[in-house]
Amino acid sequence: METDSTHTIDSQAVDTPFVSINEVGVNIKLFETPTQVLLGDTFDIKVLVSWQGEASLLLLPLNSVNSKGLEQISVKQESGRLLQNSKIHSENTFTYKIVALDTGEWQVPSLKILSPISQNKNLELETEPFTMRVETPFQFLPLISSVLFLMVFFAFIYWKQKKRRQKQEQIKSERSFEENHKEAFLILKQRVNTADSREWLLALEKNCAGWAQHSLKIDSLELLVDQNPEWNLLLEEFKHARYGGGFRDSFMNLETWKLAAKLMSFSEDE
Fold first, then answer.
1. Which residue among 52, 127, 135, 250 sits deepest, i.e. has the most Cβ atoms within 10 Å of its Cβ?
2. Partners of 61 in the beta sheet?
3. Partners of residue 44 on adjacent β-strands
4. What residue spans define the domains of the chain?
5. How confident is the model over 67-81, as pLDDT tens digits?
6. Do residues 65 and 44 lie in contact, with contact meaning Cβ atoms separated by under 8 Å?
7. Are 96 and 65 in contact (CB under 8 A)?
């Protein structure tokens, strides 16, 4: 933001010990001035006073930038000369360091610079007032916290849904096994009169072994003997089928089937 005004000093009208030429054109302007800052920011408002020639001017800041929402910390003055279009220009830069104390739109007053020309005459320079807006800084911490919370929340929801799906699949698998096991076991009962005894007993052993592995997580039927000695009777029947062979009446197969049903707590009404 820049504002510019020019003041002309007539040395014939005013006797001055500071200006030794007939006429001096003095300019004042704001430059590199922000119009929007964040709450708590420290920033600069710069005022440039310039004139043509090497004449010396005593320049004094008359007021401060203090206003509602803004507080002046310090002011610094720097002077210099430069050559422009084969002409010497003198300039003074006033840097007002400001801190933003409150949010809102605040009026920055005219910044006045006094230049004493003589004991009875002063030259007063001033900038145009302008409005500055102070915004609330963006808070990253609440955003990060919200993102982390959402990540944890969705991860928890995903975990719960995964566990629910696994549970449903497990229940489905167990139901499928139980239905298949029941169907195969009932078929064995129906075949007691028609099937080969050896083949029938080996099929019954396989059915019992599958039940033990799925329901009891036991890989060997022999481990069940310590829990119930009647398992030993059934195991002897299976050994006889594998190594002995020979003819068996159908009622013997049926009794063996009933013993297996009892040991596996099987009920035909399930």
1. 127
2. 113
3. 97
4. 4-140, 174-270
5. 888 999 999 999 988
6. no
7. yes
